[in-house]
Protein 1
Amino acid sequence: QFPFGRRLPCDIYWHGVSFHDNNIFSGQVNKFPGMMETVRKITLSRAMRTMQDLFPLEYNFYPRSWILPEELPLFVAEVRMMKDSHPSWKPTFIVKPDGGCQGDGIYLIKDPSDIRLTGSIQSRPAVVQEYICKPLLVDKLKFDIRLYVLLKSLEPLEIYIAKDGLSRFCTEPYQEPTLKNLHQVFMHLTNYSLNIHSGNFIHSASVNTGSKRTFSSILCRLSSRGADVKKLWSDIISLVIKTIIALTPELKVYYQSDIPAGKPGPTCFQILGFDILLMKNLKPVLLEVNANPSMRIEHEQELSPGVFENVPSPVDEEVKVAVIRDTLRLVDPQKKKRKDTQLGWVTPEVLPQLSPCAAVCCRCQSSGQAPGASEEVPDAAPGPEAALPSLCLKQVFPKYAKHFSYLRLVDRVAALFIRFLGVKGTTKLGPTGFRTFIRNCKLSNSNFSMAAVDILYIDITRRWNSMGIDHKESGMCLQAFVEAFFCLAQRKYKSRPLHEQVASLIELCECRLAALRGKRLVWGCG
Ligand code: ADP
């Protein structure tokens, strides 16, 4: 700990909350610039909406969501339309304040007219989301899963998933939402921080009992009931990869702004907490992504009224210690050096193509061996690591890249955006940058004049800036650019699915920019 500042450069910097290192030029930092902003409820919902517009089936693991207050009329209209066309549909919605956590300010409603508009929505925007009414129950209780995911690198994309996580239980038996039970938080919200205050909360003495258990213990139960846990794991891996693919464009914009390419700076990695709900039919649903998941391995116990003591929590310890230990092993700077001289550590080539569930389930039968132990290749390098348990973090990207790369369209749009940002250190595109983009990609013609380009820029930018959270900079943010890009793609390639229109326009732009670059090189030589 350096409470009064650091004197010497470090190999690894471990911050408690967010990235704030403008004055370091080497090493690795455990936070990405802009991650907190990128995973806020509203920003995440927007990023998921963009992906749902492009790939509706692939992104149906995220509940239908609307952003308040700006989409309130849309929410009301869409719900009315759906109710009219499906009279038996009796939905419930969950309203979650943006930037909230631990269940703070969350409430359930049956009808859009129940949204509490007085004051708070204007001052504190929120997301309203379709409520999953039929979650999977264990011991008649609703629970969610906290999975730890290591984003080891953004470029190239490297993602690891911990083979075990936490299952956090409600403390009142679950009933489908009715007007009578909507307000019962111990029945509907799985937050540990809420349920700990219920008289029914049971501190877990082992990994498979109580109000917080390991995910692997749930999988064992499901497996013994004949559930296809292998498929479940593969759905979860796919959910995690697709979610990170949705987040990377925004993260890259922040990254180039804080750590400009070509200048000395640190590299980043980050442990994220994924909150996932399982539906009754075992389909995983993403609830949220946490940039700062709690790494506490003890809990507070009330000894006598008002007197608390911290006691170890075996479930937290089992899962979290392994995640931090393996993260440090994966980012170990010494490892890099050793890798140069020895054949690799855990590389995608040497890992057999096994799904992690096979490994998790071996816990059921065998000793206390960590899940997946048999699956990993032991460290080739002798040394202190040899004595450590094998990795609990499993690489899923680039390992499964070929199944998901076609989804990375917005990443390529973001690359175009970043290219025209001009002065490093910004996250917004000015009107000149936008015009240069249009001109260099030759997108303007007699049907689409430069005056029309300016109007498109002004319209979209103004709308995004009026609802944006970030008013610090003026100009076009990435999401606004993506919207403009989709508009251009739809104009140019009519009556095709949106993802094809966007892919075609990206290819055209990339091609024209490559040709321009070629020309400039030739002129340079001349
Ligand atoms: P917070 O950051 O405040 O914890 P979450 O989005 O995680 O907010 O929601 C809190 C809890 O509410 C979740 O842990 C889950 O139990 C429940 N929940 C959230 N969204 C949904 C949903 N769409 N359907 C069903 N339950 C949900």
Protein 2
Amino acid sequence: MFNSLQPLPPDPILGLSAAYRADTNPSKVDLGVGVYKDANGRTPVMRAVKRAEEVLVASQDSKAYVAPTGAAGYNEIVASLLLGNTLKQSLADRRVTVQTPGGCGGLRIAAEFIRQANPDATVWVSDPTWANHIPLLGSAGLQFKQYPYYDYDTHAVKFDEMLECLSKVPKGDLVLLHGCCHNPSGADLTIEQWQAVKEAALAQGFTVFIDLAYQGLGDGLDTDVYGVRLLAESLPELIVVSSCSKNFGLYRERTGALTLICETTEATAAATTLLAAAARANYSMPPDHGAAIVQTIMESPELSSDWDSELREIRDRINSLRALLVARLQIAGVERDFSFIEQEKGMFSFLGVNKDQIQTLIQQYSIYLVGSSRINIASINDDNIDYLVESIKAVL
Ligand code: LMR
């Protein structure tokens, strides 16, 4: 039965990590997968996470099952992070949050929920979007269309075209937005643009679906969810999938959540049963450890304040690396204007080089970047910046 199977190509993002690991060039640089790296090129366990783990090891007295919807305490904490306490309270009867195995698990459960709610729904995704959105949501049977998003010439959101497209999306379809730190472009919506999206959603009646994987890595924990909060308080329905991979550095612990806002209390109660059933049918229940860490941190004033400080250090470092890369390219005499990189947010930007230049960077210079020219800014450090800048200059 298995003899006729053909191997699949490597994953466009995770495949780069394997190629990077196998590369023996001592100057190699990994700008591929979106993980934060410190000045020494390491992805550290955050201080508060380490301390929370010590607390958990000392205090946890059972490994009995959790519920398909996860830990209630964690779910409330996630909802507070997303919505803030006031909005969370005002939406109390219309909101449900369920713990999921990472943001990916949340996206998958959201996809199954959407299929149940409207089997004919089309999900409109940004052009471009995260390379795994369509495989992940599509594997649950959803169909897709694209709305214009990133202008590769101006390095900005082509919002007029985006809005024109959204103003034709019908009720029953979903529009998938990146809550902040757009992956792969780093180009985010402005406050005015979020407001215009809200008006379009109200006028058309489509459902907004937000993927929020980078809260706290752009401008700040609250600033980064301006759009989420605006839509949560204004629209009758909303889906938000969030992740603690990046902002708590819990990547491998698979710690995420799906938050739904429904129009009525009755719809919320029904939706909760569907989410629990989808979780049960897929993985029964989410893994506990990452969520228990988040809960332990956020229930301790001391740990949560330390987490907040370290997250700020991470965010500031990424933003300073953006400025550094732009400045160093300019100092090196590269004529092309890369100043857009400094305006963008989160881990990623497009370098804007072509397919041949990407292949040269990978094969000749051992600089690993995604095939769209997406680079992970958080991988730049004092040891690799000279080599990186010289290599980019050479391929240009
Ligand atoms: C990325 O975009 O690099 C991250 O979200 C990691 C992943 O799973 O692709």
